[in-house]
UniProtKB/TrEMBL annotation:
Gene3D superfamilies: P-loop containing nucleotide triphosphate hydrolases
GO molecular function terms listed in the Swiss-Prot or TrEMBL record: transferase activity
UniProt-recorded name of the protein: Sulfotransferase
Electron transport listed as a keyword: no
Length: 295
């Protein structure tokens, strides 16, 4: 079945979730043939829940002995250019996998290629407050929407989000899949909250590094390496780099997105400035019902 999408495309139902057409093609290819390696690290997110930030953090942590902080790839490349999206990559390269150990995806847990679960690789899942994720997505989709189409109506978008028909949604089923997996396989799946990273980046960057088997040594801690990682990847730093202010990111051969679209505010709680009390209650109602053990 098809449902009306937010931007231009329709979303398609596949194995319990809603997808835009092009990633879905990539996902089907990955489900058939993707071969994970035990050393792979997969960053999994719902769109607009902190992908750009966590790509930067994981890339910096994993490559900290390779690159100097003053001459770092993230100073001249958007984080999305450093860490590919598996489904977009697979859509354009159906017969090969990226030769990198850090990869990202929005795929729900239940439809991950079997080899990811069988390989012993690690999964880092980022959870962001649903109202902040929704508002960020609404801004993003509004920006990408072609001018010839009427603007997106916020009320309609809330309605659609709450019905589960958002890209890679339902939001709650996506979250629950990884939440349960993180309880069942805590050394394979890490569930990390955007808000926790924002509140205590030192603690959570340390945990992230330990989880993916790139722990900071006490020598590195004394030298302030964790601070340097956090500083490099901070919203203030990344959003002010020329590459992210004026550059663009080629999501696929058919789509190019201005890099600055990935950096809006980088805060928690912005939903309060956008959603009416009724809209917030509508989202809270469905989330409390669906994610009662978690929120
Ligand atoms: P806002 O629209 O609320 O500002 P994604 O990377 O998954 O597309 O998510 C984008 C959201 O993450 C946007 O949220 C963006 O501003 C925020 N973001 C991007 N880089 C960030 C960073 N380095 N630190 C914190 N938030 C960041």
């Amino acid at each position: 079945p098809k449902a009306k999408g937010w931007a231009t495309q329709h979303v398609h139902y596949h194995q319990g979730f809603w997808f835009n057409q092009s990633p879905l093609q990539g996902i089907i290819t990955l489900q058939k043939s993707f071969e994970a390696r035990p050393t792979d690290v997969f960053l999994v997110t719902l769109p607009k829940s902190g992908t750009t930030w966590f790509k930067a953090l994981l890339f910096t942590i994993m490559n900290r002995n390779r690159y100097d902080f003053h001459d770092h790839p993230l100073l001249t490349a958007n984080p999305h250019e450093c860490v590919p999206f598996l489904e977009m990559y697979a859509m354009e390269n159906p017969n090969q996998r990226p030769d990198l150990s850090l990869l990202s995806t929005h795929m729900p847990y239940t439809i991950l290629p079997k080899s990811i679960l069988a390989s012993g690789s690690r999964i880092v899942y980022v959870y962001r407050d649903p109202k902040d994720t929704f508002v960020s997505l609404w801004h993003f989709m509004s920006k990408l929407r072609p001018k010839e189409l009427p603007p997106l109506v916020l009320e309609d978008a809330v309605e659609q989000f709450c019905s589960g028909k958002s890209s890679y949604g339902p939001f709650w089923d996506h979250v629950l899949g990884y939440w349960k997996a993180s309880i069942e396989w805590p050394d394979r799946v890490m569930f990390v909250k955007f808000a926790d990273m924002k509140n205590d980046p030192i603690l959570h960057a340390k945990r992230l590094a330990e989880f993916i088997s790139y722990p900071f040594s006490s020598e590195e801690e004394n030298e302030g390496v964790i601070h340097k990682v956090i500083e490099l990847c901070s919203f203030e730093n990344l959003s002010n780099l020329e590459v992210n202010k004026s550059g663009s990111y080629k999501a696929s051969s058919a789509s190019k997105i201005e890099s600055k679209t990935f950096f809006r505010q980088g805060k928690t709680g912005d939903w309060k400035n956008i959603l009416t009390t009724e809209m917030a209650e509508q989202i809270d109602g469905i989330i409390e019902q669906k994610l009662k053990d978690l929120v």
